[in-house]
Amino acid sequence: MLQIYEGVIHKITNMGRLTTGVIGLIVVLAMAWAINDRVFWIRWFSQPPGDTVLLNWQWYQPVDVIKDGPSPPLPVADQPDLTIEEDALAEAQAYAEEFDSLAFLVARNGVLQLEHYGEGQDRETVIDSQSMHKGLLGVVTTVALDQGFIPSLDTPVSTYIPEWGSDGRRDITVGHLLKMTSGLTQVEYGTSAFAPGQRLFFGEDLDGPVRALPLAFEPGTAFDFNHMNSQALHAVLTGATGLSYADFVREYLWDPIGAGFAQVRLDREGGAARIFCCVQTRPMDWMRLGLMLSKGGRVDGEQVISEDWVTRLMSGSDLNPNFGFHVWLGSPYTGSRLVSEPQDRRSPVSAEFLADDVMFVEGRGGQRLYVVPSAGLVAYRAGRIDFSWDDAKIMNILLGGIRQNADSTDEQDG
Q1: Per-residue pLDDT tens for 276-328?
Q2: Facing residues of 346 across strands?
Q3: Max CA separation in the chain (angstroms)
Q4: What number of CA atoms fall less than 13 Å from residue 162's CA on the CB side?
Q5: What are the structural domains, with CATH classification, of the chain?
Q6: Of 53, 186, 295, 364, which is most buried with the most CB atoms under 10 A?
Q7: E strand or H helix at 139
Q8: Cβ neighbours of residue 270 closer than 8 Å, sequence gap 6 or more
Q9: What residues does 382 pair with on adjacent strands?
Q10: Which segments of 244-321 does DSSP mark as H helices, in order?
Q11: Dihedral angle at the C-alpha atoms of 112, 118, 123, 127, nearest 10 degrees?
């Protein structure tokens, strides 16, 4: 309770000067409310400020460790062996530094061309991913489909969430969740502690809100980027595999790609993992994930995901050709990408990408993993949360800098 009390005082003092009596009343009311939702309030008041959240990731409990241990680095190109021009690498690094990047890594054909860390950071730095977890989730679900745990994209989600079988939600399929076309109602994500969405980030029950969420429109009729599509996949994955989320990721993805430390947050001990956001891992592990995708699902000659399913993962739909299985696609170029048809929301795209097969995993405010299979290119960026980060600019710098005499078909799995 002391954490809640101190948190309340801290929040109130940031509002400006208030009388002692008013402060006391607010504290009493807050404490009374907290008795019925103690864990939520401890988490809500303990959360780090927005400008420190990427590195300040150890505040949350409980967690489930996907894997512990080091993150083996990729091989590093010597200067004469670079396959991207030094001027292009320097320009890309300067752009990353302009946005106070904590880490910016570029690899081509499995070999690091650039490895840059912000002041005080290095290969061992663990960084919170924000919504990049959604892209990882898309890959994890693709693995479950490829391995036959989930019969098909057309499998009804009510197979794993029976409460959805008695109304229009019976028509929601696994494919609808992956493609963000389920029709599920949006949850309000205001900054107030009383906004419903705050319970998804800090509450002790993730499954209940998923089971209770109604439809807003008919499944399969519109694209609507919605956190709840992602969280609903938790019931699908755990129900289909019989494993916890962390155990499945470790056995079928993280170990096969040779990745190191990673962890996810749980709503409570033994409960559901928060899979719509916030996996914590190191930059090199994201690079290994990207490298596997760039090589058509292969690592060291072994097929982690079949090439057919990797292609499906990175293919758009009629409702949004720029969105695959929880990953974004650079083509086709229209000057923007659709975020929500019902809300008429789009994100600007500054220019056409120099390659037709740019795919990226997106996290809040410029957290990114880029994969361009045709160029053997993988890049990762984490740093200051800034929504002016320009995907086309950074990737076109790198794509434009590929040396013309460099063999883009070199096979190195790392």
Answers
A1: 999 999 999 999 999 999 999 999 999 999 999 999 999 999 999 999 999 99
A2: 338
A3: 74
A4: 0
A5: 79-124+283-400 (3.40.710.10)
A6: 295
A7: helix 132-146
A8: none
A9: 103
A10: 245-249, 283-294, 307-313
A11: -110
